[in-house]
Specification:
The structure is a homodimer.
Chain A: E1 2-13, E2 16-28, E3 33-37, H1 44-51, E4 59-64, E5 67-68, H2 74-84, E6 85-88, H3 100-105, H4 115-128, H5 144-156, E7 162-166, H6 174-189, E8 193-197, E9 209-214, E10 217-219, H7 221-226
Parallel strand pairs in A: 3-8, 3-9, 6-7, 7-8
Antiparallel strand pairs in A: 1-2, 1-4, 4-5, 9-10
Helix pairs in contact in A: 4-5
The complex binds adenosine-5'-triphosphate (2 copies) and magnesium ion (2 copies).
């Protein structure tokens, strides 16, 4: 279960304050597939960063599976990020000096899993996203959509209980995008909690829950459609 | 007029050869709005890079407004890029140390246009993409879709005759994305030649020409739909 209470993230720039999240109250059931939608700049990535322990709230609380994230110190957050969450970044964040295979295997480095099995598991995920013949390409030797798919594979290699996906199909054609949506849906049906930020309405078909954001606040679907 | 004859781009990696473009023949009429579609990895960005003078073909010819790009030396290509083309990158390529306003104004640095007018023109474009109140944010202080819109504004500030847009709405919600499509269509109707790589079928509504790519080759719409 994920529960956010009066969650705020305020960015201060000189004398200007940007309320990226402006008092958000959310409950996400365990094992749900939740789609998060909203206009550009409405706070979706900020919300995902806070849920993934990649940033700290300005105020408010975040409970994930009984743990309070806002109370964790940096080391505890690092363990949480590594063990509990698989994060697919909107801008991929691949390591430029590593190949696709090395990028996918990277989260396993502290897992205690041996080299052969790390390689096997990483290869399997690259195959699942259609990139088995791009394993030895570095990010600059991959198309935009191929980089996005490597980012998807990397987020899954640790078999995390919760997957946070930020626009995972933004750079993909209809067919490749559908493949990724189905992959996320399969993971959901295998028991994982999946949160997907997307502007692709096809993802709603797979959703058990929906959240709509407008200017850093949660709104109803009606308010969102009316905007 | 843009004319490609038997255009090839082969990447060599050790003993492996990747034919990103595999003998492409294209004619793009001046003043057209051409949509380029194809699966992830089919060669769309590679084609745009060659047309924009950002990379060189392995073989074949590229004629743009009577000039042969494959015959240009590096300095001539640099002038071509700066004066004839506005390029919107799939991964934005913004300068991290500059604000949104500075990023948009950057292509004007050799234009001979005075500081006040550079600022005025850049502000106007940021307003057109809905970002006038984000002028002083740096890329890391912008959402993904906001960064994409800064990249769009920057490509237009030099008032180039040809605009090459690589997935310009991939990170935008329905409404913001429609705004960018209309902006590109307006530029087209004002006389510019516009090429848009996209997987958003809404763009076809504004297109005067269509190109479909599959595995580095041009195919018919039928072959593309059947794939
Ligand atoms: N520097 C490189 N070295 C080796 N292969 C490359 C290189 N750059 C691109 N490729 C390969 O060339 C093919 C075409 O790449 P390109 O970026 O043009 O695809 P695309 O159609 O733009 O895809 P997407 O829709 O995913 O952005 C891809 O299969 C990619 O892996
Ligand atoms: N470091 C920062 N400093 C100042 N403002 C910021 C910072 N990071 C984000 N913002 C602002 O916070 C708001 C929310 O950003 P966020 O990235 O969460 O939006 P988003 O919903 O993911 O948008 P998109 O759909 O375009 O990716 C935006 O208006 C953005 O300009
Ligand atoms: Mg975002
Ligand atoms: Mg591309």
């Amino acid at each position: 279960l994920v529960r956010c209470r009066d969650l705020r993230k305020i960015f201060v720039m000189g004398r200007q304050r940007v309320a990226a999240l402006d008092g958000v109250n959310i409950e996400i059931p365990e094992g749900s597939l939740t789609v998060i939608m909203g206009p550009s700049g409405s706070g979706k990535s900020t919300l995902l960063y806070l849920l993934g322990g990649l940033d700290r709230p300005t105020s408010g609380s975040i409970e994930v599976a009984g743990e309070q994230l806002e109370k964790m110190d940096e080391n505890t957050l690092a363990v949480y990020r590594r063990q509990k969450v698989g994060f697919i970044f909107q801008s991929f964040n691949l390591v430029a000096s590593m190949t696709a295979l090395e990028n996918v295997a990277f989260p396993l480095r502290f897992s205690g899993i041996g080299g052969a099995e790390r390689k096997e598991r990483s290869r399997g995920l690259l195959r699942q996203v259609g990139l088995e013949n791009r394993s030895h390409h570095r990010p600059t030797e991959l198309s935009g959509g191929q980089q996005q798919r490597v980012a998807v594979a990397r987020a899954l290699v640790n078999r995390p209980a919760m997957i946070l996906a930020d626009e995972p199909t933004g750079n993909l054609d209809t067919t490749s995008g559908l493949g990724i949506m189905r992959l996320l849906s399969d993971l959901h049906r295998s028991g994982k909690t999946v949160l997907v930020v997307t502007h692709d309405p096809r993802m709603l078909h797979y959703a058990t829950n929906r959240i709509f954001l407008l200017d850093g606040k949660v709104v109803t679907e009606q308010e969102y459609q009316a905007a």
